[in-house]
Write a structure and sequence with these properties.
This protein is an alpha+beta fold. Helices cover about 35% and strands about 20% of the residues. The protein is globular, with a radius of gyration of 23 Å.
Amino acid sequence: MKMEQNVILVLDIGTTNIKALLFDKQGEIVGEARRRPEYIMNEKGQVEQDPNQIWQYSKEAIEEVIEKKNLSASEIQCMGITTQRASFCMWDKRDGRLYSNIITWQDKRAAEYADKMTNSFFFKFLRGFAKVAHALTKSTKMLTASMLQFNSDYASIRTSYFLKHNPKVNELIQDPKTSIAWGTIDTWVLWNLTEGRVHATDYSNCSSTGMLDPFTLDWNSIVVDKLEIPIHILPDIKDTNGDFGVTKLFGNGEIPIRSVIADQQASLFGQCCFDYGDMKVTNGTGSFVDLNTGDEPFASKRKLYPLVAWRLDGEIRYILEGLSHNTGNIIDWIQEELELYSDPAKTEEMAKSVESTGGVFFLPTFSSGISFPYWDPTARGNIFGISMQTKKEHIVRAVLNGICFRIKDFVEGIIADTGIHVDKIKADGGVSQNTYILQFLADILGMEVEHSKNPETTALGAAFIAGLKTGFWDSRDQLKEIRKVDKIYKPKMSEERRNKLYNAWKDIIRRSLNYNNF
């Protein structure tokens, strides 16, 4: 039976799942198919994916969801794409021959090289010059340049590292007429969807590579040049709701592609955080806190760089973001290695079964160290305050609290550095299904936490952008009416108790810094 109402198709390529979803005009999911991609890893820090598998699984998921609903292409209004950020691959535009796997944002092989480039004479000089210039001019651009550092999260540094270790590829791409292309996952999948007609990305994905100048909104010629990445292999940069061509592979017709956006920025849009001062947190594999800073790039003096949220019909929005790589993976690790529970869903009940942590604190970080505002790559996870009276429930509660404490670090730090007033935070992501976490987060932040009812906020954001562009929805006000709230968590903790706990947390952090790996 065919659907009477048009739908929007979204391809959502995340860290653990590839999903094809159909959204109706009420913003409801009316069709879904998913695949679970595999990783190629080793002890040297390699974390890669097979580009052909990512494309094949994406294609299969789209085919499945369309076939389930017996849809033709004419019944699909348009398509949006949202993907994990800063993972890239290289291929030949003539035939799709691969020159690399997808080197993901989790890959750590370039960590030492990143430090080397950060501490090189040129970039030390650049930071020093920019620091003086900022002192004289108070220019945000100079402040940003004064903090320019590299780490292996950036696709820029991993690309440079890859090219230095693959001299044959590096030699081939020096030719300005080379057919070798570079792209993040969105670019690779888009190229396949359009059968090689489009080699492009959007501003949000480009911003997350470390190669976009957020002030000129073009490839950063200084970074690209010094990392020896030929600019002619990079994709075109389009508006987030730009014309990304059509795909002719499904439903016996053409489906226009009208949004491409990075996952965290898509989640921000899906939460209807359209305005200056809107903030959201996504709790999944990691935790990502994003603040909408409006139409001007804003840099934090504590090394947070401005990122592009989206550019829609030439209208730009920026964000500041604090992130921890260790949230859902910490919960999974405790299940698999410490065996404190058989199902992560049980953590909520376990945490609520005791009145406190019994003085236990847990710092949720693995080998990635601790980021903003402490910036110590040597820091390691710790359990503090255990005694003979400590039960596993105390430890579980401390783990969930630790996740919330790190989010508070980001929220407080970003608010302090920007001076932007924030009175509530919107929460989404799989770990946000845990009601204990959201209530403790409201308590420790001292502000309301608004949980989204839609479990696929990232995909919804991509759908919203494509739908606005094509007239599927009329306005952002209509989107705000469509977005549904599951529950609003209000703070119940006294300010005295909140301050006491957070001061203890900051003491725990200080004790965990400068760890020496014996």
